[in-house]
């Protein structure tokens, strides 16, 4: 597979990464660390080299034990450390009502990074994201701390999740930003306005929730029984009866393309963004090896620029129910 590059950092990764969040957080009961680590390691053996986690991806298993996503990522990837790129995030804390609190104060960043490195069991983080911008901390201040961490050898590159143009430009002027991680899918296209800036500054877009929290696979509907309070998909607009009816047109669009290309709906959804820009790197997640393999197969599906433009035009004409907030990581 042809590698993709994390912006001006020059770090090469597989064309798709693995979003590890759902193994322990927001997708039902957390998997025990050894089981989650086996999923991650199997993804590596399939060809994934880019793995995404975060300090706040914490959940409970059926026994009520607290489990940290970074522990599983570290257990899986330490034996192959020189062959993988590990991304993690700082500065977000989950509240019981599923909202977020943010804290990117320099003293917090400096205090927490050693704990993150310890959970991962590594000496240096390849890509370290500010998980959400903090209205109480200026972008230049965060970038300054990132420069310190790079000089100290604790991180190789850094990025921002949820950045707008002003934040990105101000931060990049202090310490070059390698990647922006934003929600992006056929149901979530509002960040396309940032694309010219990303190209200008040579910043990669790492697309989280690239299949709209599973909706674009065609596998879920309002009848799906998600796993209680720990599963954040329950109640998202695309899974309400009204929202699902609005968004079914997208399923029809990608279903037709999937049949034409002998591909799956998930693969068409991912190929659409892979073929749109060479610097977009989606990070779908799954607990199922067959889904991991299916997702990676999207890199072999080629859509022409004209086909991508036709998909965009069709989406533009749809009245879609989308999850447009930034309250969930």
How would the blueprint of this fold be written?
Elements: E1 4-5, E2 12-13, E3 18-19, H1 33-46, E4 50-52, E5 58-60, E6 66-68, H2 69-77, E7 85-90, E8 92-94, E9 100-102, H3 106-120, E10 125-130, H4 139-151, E11 155-161, H5 165-174, E12 179-183, H6 195-201, E13 204-208, H7 241-261, H8 265-274, E14 280-282, H9 289-296, H10 305-316
Parallel strand pairs: 3-4, 4-7, 7-10, 10-11, 11-12, 12-13, 13-14
Antiparallel strand pairs: 1-2, 5-6, 8-9
Describe this structure in words.
This protein has 329 residues and is of the alpha/beta class. The protein has one domain (4-211, 277-301): TIM Barrel. The chain is built from ten helices and 14 strands. The chain has helices spanning 33-46, 69-77, 106-120, 139-151, 165-174, 195-201, 241-261, 265-274, 289-296, 305-316, and strands spanning 4-5, 12-13, 18-19, 50-52, 58-60, 66-68, 85-90, 92-94, 100-102, 125-130, 155-161, 179-183, 204-208, 280-282. The protein has an eight-stranded parallel sheet. It has a two-stranded antiparallel ribbon with strand order 1-2. The protein has a two-stranded antiparallel ribbon with strand order 5-6. Helix 1 packs parallel to helix 9, helix 4 runs parallel beside helix 5 and helix 7 (241-261) crosses helix 8. The radius of gyration is 19 Å and the shape is globular. It starts with a strand and ends in a 13-residue tail after the last helix. Residues 324-329 have low confidence and may be disordered.
């Amino acid at each position: 597979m042809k590698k993709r590059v994390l912006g001006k950092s020059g770090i090469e990764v597989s064309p798709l990464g693995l979003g590890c969040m759902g193994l322990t957080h927001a997708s039902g009961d957390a998997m025990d660390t050894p089981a989650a680590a086996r999923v991650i390691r199997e993804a590596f053996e399939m060809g994934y080299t880019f793995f995404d986690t975060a300090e706040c991806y914490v959940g409970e298993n059926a026994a009520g034990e607290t489990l940290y996503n970074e522990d599983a990522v570290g257990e899986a990837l330490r034996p192959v450390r020189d062959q993988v790129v590990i991304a993690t995030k700082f500065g977000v804390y989950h509240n019981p009502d599923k909202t977020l609190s943010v804290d990117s104060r320099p003293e917090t960043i400096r205090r927490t990074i050693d704990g993150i490195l310890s959970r991962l069991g590594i000496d240096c983080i390849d890509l370290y994201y500010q998980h959400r911008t903090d209205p109480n901390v200026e972008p230049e201040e965060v970038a300054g701390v990132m420069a310190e961490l790079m000089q100290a050898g604790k991180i190789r590159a850094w990025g921002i999740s949820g950045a707008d143009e002003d934040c990105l430009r101000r931060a990049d002027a202090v310490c070059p930003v390698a990647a922006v991680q934003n929600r992006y899918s056929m149901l979530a296209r509002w960040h396309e306005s940032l694309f010219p800036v990303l190209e200008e500054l040579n910043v990669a877009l790492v697309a989280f929730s690239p299949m709209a929290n599973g909706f674009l696979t065609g596998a879920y509907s309002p009848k799906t029984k998600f796993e209680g309070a720990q599963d954040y998909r329950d109640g998202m607009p695309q899974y309400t009866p009204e929202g699902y009816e609005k968004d079914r047109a997208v399923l029809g669009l990608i279903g037709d393309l999937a049949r034409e290309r002998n591909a799956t709906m998930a693969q068409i959804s991912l190929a659409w963004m892979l073929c749109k820009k060479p610097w977009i790197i989606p990070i779908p997640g799954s607990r199922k090896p067959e889904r991991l393999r299916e997702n990676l197969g999207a890199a072999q599906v080629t859509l022409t620029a004209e086909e991508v433009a036709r998909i965009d035009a069709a989406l533009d004409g749809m009245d879609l129910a989308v999850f447009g907030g930034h309250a969930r990581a």
